[in-house]
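Sample intake sheet
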Amino acid sequence: MRTNIKAQCAALALAAFATVSAQAAETLNVVTFGGAYEAAAKKAYFDPFTQATGVNFSLESYDGGLAKLSAMEQAKNTTWDLIDLESNDAITACDEGLLKKFDKKTLGNTSDFIPGSISDCAVASMVWSTVYAYDASKLKTAPSTINDFFDLQKFPGKRGLRKSPKGSMEWALIADGVDPKDVYKVLGTPAGVDRAFKKLDTIKKNIVWWESGAQAPQLLADGAVVMTQAYNGRIDDASKKDKKPFKIVWDAQVYDYEWWGIPAGAKHADTAAKFIVSASQPKAYADLSKYIAYAPPRKDAIPLVDKQRLADLPTAPDNFKRAIQINPTFWADNADEINKRFQVWLTQ
């Protein structure tokens, strides 16, 4: 019976977007974070949709944020049909009317989705994590905790960090002794913000900043840093596909959902919505994990993931012992203020 129900659901999902198959010339303009994730999404999400419907994709990469989307919407000249978003941007974009509301009913039975992975305007595309990594061929002693990232005496050398306070502030507090479960309670106070910046001060002169996800593994490969903050999928990709001797330290990993959203002024919004339904099927999520080490936000996708691959995902039990989930509401509410202070701090 369960097999029949799954087959029926799959058939309904195909029927939901099969009507666009006649529009073979239609092209969805999609913006993502590029790199290894975009390549994996192409194999798991975009190519199967093209094969099923004839719809093509024009891909553009960016480093996140809502400035360009907001400008396009204000000018009433939106060229994007689908956007790849971090959680706080998905919340803010929805609140500010930059995204269309998403009809959750089109997804069918959503009981197996991880709580919080479907919002009013967006659907999670995967679970990813901010970790730090090092080149095992260059370190005699392996770092194992977030404290090691901040310990310049034990592990001298440069550190790579994303040029953003998000993730780094959380790490700074944990390395300074704050329990992971209390991070946002502390960071939500002026004293907590001061404390995080003070801890970052201890490694500031040794920081090499990066902005796009592809830069982090490149910094390691070039020997420009001893260890670097990075997206787990980028390091896994470099390790497995490029045979780089990189190792991930999962302690204090900061995990988050990635989201698909449709700009309010999208010219192909209906087709974009049908794509989201297609990309949110268990098999599609499992296929993504095959190509990059990001986890499915649907429980029914887990049995479809190769057992050996499960160990590489952020949600694997051994990797999840001191994980913290990014608090998107905190960052949606406080990003502007903390970012302003961060920009001043960079110049000091």
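Comment: Residues 128-256+325-347 form a domain with the D-Maltodextrin-Binding Protein; domain 2 fold (CATH 3.40.190.10). The longest strand covers residues 246-261.
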